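Task: sequence design from structure.
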């Protein structure tokens, strides 16, 4: 497996139960054979009121973080959008860090241009660049 893209809650469920922080949890997954872990910060405990979201890439050659402005609303499909965009970028042969950065940028734009059909969750508009008429 090349990369996992869990949020903080998923990371805690997947990792060894003896791990106490994000880095230890990510390392436990790397030891199982995963080549990298991109932990998304959207579900990080205690940061719901934060003005930004931090995503962290854990890889054998080191960690890297990206910070994005937190968007208003609750989104459904953001993790799937990120994972799909990341897989597409990696399939094109991009570097891991470059693919992570570009996939996050694509996902953020899809969320900024998202569609909120009712009072609940908003949906990423993945094809937002296409004309609507």
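Answer:
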């Amino acid at each position: 497996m090349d990369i996992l893209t869990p949020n903080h809650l998923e990371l805690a469920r997947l990792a060894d139960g003896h791990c106490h922080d994000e880095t230890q949890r990510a390392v436990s997954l790397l030891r199982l054979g995963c080549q990298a872990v991109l932990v998304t910060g959207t579900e990080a405990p205690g940061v719901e009121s934060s003005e930004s979201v931090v995503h962290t890439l854990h890889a054998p050659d080191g960690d890297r973080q990206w910070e994005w402005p937190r968007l208003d609303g609750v989104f459904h499909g953001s993790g799937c959008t990120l994972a799909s965009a990341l897989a597409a970028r990696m399939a094109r042969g991009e570097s891991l860090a470059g693919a992570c950065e570009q996939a996050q940028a694509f996902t953020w734009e899809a969320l900024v241009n998202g569609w909120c059909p009712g009072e609940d969750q908003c949906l990423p508009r993945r094809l937002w660049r296409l004309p609507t008429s």
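The mean pLDDT is 90.
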